[in-house]
Design brief:
Length: about 325
């Protein structure tokens, strides 16, 4: 075998070794400020089926001006399509509980966290057990907020990376870890949010599902050739085409489904790093690749994550959550 061939073989083995380390590191534990003990979620296939059957009650014809169903028959949730009371009743009968993950690292904590949490207490899954998992490098600076009965706040200390891109991408590893170590034993569903957002209207049980993706407000009306997928064939996030363009500011589902998504994104991010590649939109590019390969079972319309700078609001009957004003130059670590 030539020297070049040997070098390639050694490099390949080394890459496999590092990816194996990355895979097993998914299950490592992190330090948290306080431990809460929860009653395990029962494995009740009947309850889960009754929740999933709610899709059959949706009024897909109530919004003729917008797409309400995908080509694989997943609902796209818009105002007027669902009966909120019916969804809440089914989830109360199923004893649904929800975990929320949100990252407030560096200056993002002071700028956005309190608004995110206080607005969530007014609009997110009202009447249901919710625990907010706040991941931050500054746990002592997280302020106490008034929480409704059955709702909790848990602060988990994480590392602050030198680049904001790495903070964004490495959250997938942290999400996988907390699901593996804690959430899967305690919660029916998990939702993952960016912190620079504010709840403005009902964000309720109609949004829950096995695998939930968020339509990006800036792309849902554009032709597919304008979607900003990663076009670099060297990246694991590479896509030539897709169904929709999804926003990584919100995704959710059952613990198992969200962990599968997070593991997929993290391992592909690590492989890109080993190959000296960074996806165009970081974890969002990898998330779009995941949802192209593994179709989501429910899509949220831009009502659930709206940018107030968009001029055309003809489709938006209710703004459920909005983007907070961006302060990238001030807040992001370069």
């Amino acid at each position: 075998m030539s020297g070049r061939g040997i070098s390639k073989k050694v490099a390949g083995l080394f890459t496999c070794f590092l990816l194996s380390v990355a895979f097993f590191s998914i299950y490592s534990s992190r330090h948290s400020t306080e431990i809460h003990f929860f009653k395990p979620v029962p494995s009740d296939a009947v309850s889960l089926k009754s929740i999933l059957d709610l899709d059959e009650t949706l009024n897909y014809g109530s919004r003729p001006a917008v797409q309400t169903r995908t080509s694989w028959n997943a609902p796209i949730m818009w105002e007027l399509m669902f009966d909120a009371n019916l969804h809440d009743k089914a989830h109360r009968e199923a004893n649904t509980s929800v975990a929320v993950t949100v990252f407030a690292v560096g200056r993002y904590l002071e700028a956005y966290l309190n608004t995110f949490l206080t607005s969530a207490e007014k609009h997110f899954m009202l009447g249901f057990p919710v625990t907010y998992y706040v991941f931050t490098d500054l746990p002592d600076q997280v302020q106490n907020i008034a929480l409704a009965p059955g709702r909790k706040l848990k602060v988990v200390q994480v590392e602050k990376y030198s680049r904001w891109q790495d903070i964004s991408m490495m959250r997938m590893k942290t999400i996988s870890e907390v699901i593996e170590n804690e959430l899967q034993h305690s919660f029916s569903f998990v939702f993952c949010f960016d912190v620079d957002q504010e709840f403005k209207g009902r964000f309720g049980t109609e949004a829950l599902g096995e695998s939930v993706a968020m339509l990006h407000a800036h792309y849902y009306k554009l032709p597919k050739n304008r979607f900003t997928y990663d076009r670099n064939p060297k990246s694991k996030a590479f896509m030539e085409s897709g169904d929709f363009y999804y926003h990584a500011a919100i995704f959710g589902g059952t613990c198992q489904q969200v962990k599968t998504l997070a593991d997929f994104c993290y391992l592909n991010i690590m492989e890109d790093k080993l190959n000296g590649v960074e996806a165009l939109w970081h974890d969002e590019s990898h998330l779009n690749k995941y949802f192209w390969v593994h179709k989501p079972t429910k899509l949220l319309s831009p009502e659930y994550c709206w940018d107030m700078y968009i001029g055309d609001i003809s489709d938006i009957l209710l703004k459920r959550l909005i983007w907070a004003p961006k302060q990238y130059e001030k807040l992001r670590t370069r």
